[in-house]
């Protein structure tokens, strides 16, 4: 079989939660459909799936609260509202991230400030102090590709300047950092359940927090300001001293039912992927010049990323891997989020809101020379052996210099 690109399809499906999709998801969805109660607050036979998913997610992450919403971007925006960010405040984000981070900040009436990443491909803590101004409100570390950002030094900078830390866990559900789950370390965490994510219903999101005040503001904002939760006009959020108007970002019962099933598969899946990733990196230790640095290997969700130093070398290796059937890519094409024209020019739906950010040349160099190999939750041992052999042969064929295993990063 040849794909529309003229290349062979990948040897294995490079997906996570979707790869494990089965009859349990189908049964959960059917139960909700048959109940005719897809709205989370009432119906002929309400299943309370959204309530139960929120409880299970909070328990998994290790927080007191979880709020299920319509997308990962919605979760970020609700988190910023929950934090009480004032209009015009600045939020520091890594240059290597999805445009949804910028969209959510703009949605919450903030201004993104773009920072470099280091060899973890996540926010570089050493550049933060120089970016803080009297308008800086929060720092948004992004746990990219199932690897937690190095949070300890980021938290230290945040404490020094009195900044809130919002963890973007869209690509890292279930991942840990030094014994704690991401999403439970900063003030608030946000998650995405889009099709590529660790658990998925095609779309959906959530935020997690231990803070009652953040929970109260966020839960009301995503639910019409808390002024409409049932057809009887009841309110949500308790006796709040600060009523405000909100939006509708609620999760449906159907999505929550599927996610609850997927959540039960999360930990065994991540354990398998960690084992696979560790094996691949160990087997190729003498062939790969530098691996991506992972701040907490034991808590990661399984990442295999080579840092090859130059964009030319990465393109050569990437082309050969893809031609051989390996699902590989360069993260965000090696470009900062400011490569998006709207982000670069600060253009929002209501006008220009910020000045053009400076390019992060070091970030572009690191990311442009990176090649990530996507692992799949349904990979067999034969797939893993084939992957190791194929990557080794590709590196040799493309002239990537081998290193001493004792000195390989």
Describe this structure in words.
This protein is α/β, with parallel strands linked by helices. The chain has two domains: about 20-265, Type I PLP-dependent aspartate aminotransferase-like (Major domain) (Aspartate Aminotransferase, domain 2, 3-Layer(aba) Sandwich); about 265-395, Aspartate Aminotransferase, domain 1, CATH 3.90.1150. It has 13 helices and 14 strands. The chain has helices spanning about 25-35, 50-60, 70-85, 100-105, 130, 150-160, 210-220, 255-265, 265-285, 310-325, 340-345, 360-370, 380-395; strands at about 65-70, 90-95, 110-115, 135-140, 165-170, 175, 180, 190, 205-210, 305, 330, 345-350, 350, 370-375. The chain has a seven-stranded mixed β-sheet, with helices on both faces. Mean pLDDT is about 95; it is low at about 405-409.
- Reading the helices and strands in chain order gives HHEHEHEHEHEEEEEHHHEHEHEEHEH
Radius of gyration equals: 22 Å
Gross CATH architecture of the largest domain = 3-Layer(aba) Sandwich
Stretches with pLDDT under 50, minimum 5 residues: 404-409
How much of the residues is beta strand, in percent? 5-15%
Average per-residue pLDDT, rounded, comes to 93
Q: What is the domain total for the residues?
A: 2
In this structure, how is the largest beta sheet organized? 7 strands, mixed
CATH level 1 name of the largest domain = Alpha Beta
| Helix count from the secondary structure assignment | 13
- In terms of structural class, how would the helical and strand content be classed? alpha/beta
Q: How are the strands of the biggest sheet laid out side by side?
A: 1-9-8-5-4-2-3
């Amino acid at each position: 079989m040849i794909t529309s690109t003229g290349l062979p399809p990948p040897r294995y499906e490079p997906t996570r939660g979707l790869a494990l999709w089965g009859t349990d998801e189908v049964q959960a969805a059917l139960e909700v459909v048959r109940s005719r109660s897809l709205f989370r607050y009432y119906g002929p036979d309400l299943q309370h799936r959204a309530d139960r998913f929120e409880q299970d997610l909070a328990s998994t992450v290790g927080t007191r609260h979880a709020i299920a919403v319509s997308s990962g971007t919605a979760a970020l925006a609700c988190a910023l509202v929950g934090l009480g960010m004032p209009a015009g405040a600045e939020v520091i984000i890594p240059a290597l991230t999805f445009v949804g981070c910028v969209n959510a900040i703009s949605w919450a009436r903030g201004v993104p400030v773009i920072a470099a990443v280091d060899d973890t491909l996540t926010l570089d803590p050493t550049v933060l102090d120089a970016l803080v101004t009297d308008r800086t409100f929060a720092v948004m570390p992004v746990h990219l590709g199932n690897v937690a950002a190095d949070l300890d030094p980021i938290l230290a900078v945040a404490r020094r300047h009195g900044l809130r830390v919002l963890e973007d866990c869209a690509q890292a559900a279930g991942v840990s950092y030094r014994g704690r789950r991401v999403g439970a370390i900063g003030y608030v965490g946000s998650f995405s359940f889009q099709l590529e994510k660790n658990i998925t219903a095609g779309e959906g999101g959530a935020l997690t927090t231990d803070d009652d005040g953040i929970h109260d503001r966020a839960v009301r904002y995503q639910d019409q300001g808390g002024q409409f939760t049932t057809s009887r006009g009841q309110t949500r959020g308790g006796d709040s001293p600060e009523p405000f108007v909100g939006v509708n970002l609620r999760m449906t019962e159907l999505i929550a039912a599927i996610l609850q099933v997927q959540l039960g598969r999360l930990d065994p899946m991540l354990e398998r992927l960690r084992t696979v990733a560790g094996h691949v990196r160990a087997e190729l230790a003498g062939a790969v010049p530098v691996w991506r640095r992972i701040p907490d290997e034991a808590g990661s969700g399984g990442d295999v990323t080579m840092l090859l130093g130059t964009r030319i070398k990465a393109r050569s290796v990437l082309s050969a891997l893809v031609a051989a059937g390996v699902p590989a890519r360069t993260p965000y094409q090696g470009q900062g989020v400011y490569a998006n024209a709207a982000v670069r020019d600060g253009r929002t739906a209501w006008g220009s809101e910020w000045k053009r950010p400076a390019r992060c040349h070091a970030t572009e160099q690191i990311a442009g020379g990176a090649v990530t190999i996507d692992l799949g939750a349904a990979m067999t041992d034969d797939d893993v052996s084939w992957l190791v052999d194929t990557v080794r042969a590709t590196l040799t064929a493309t002239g990537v210099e081998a290193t001493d295993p004792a000195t390989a990063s």
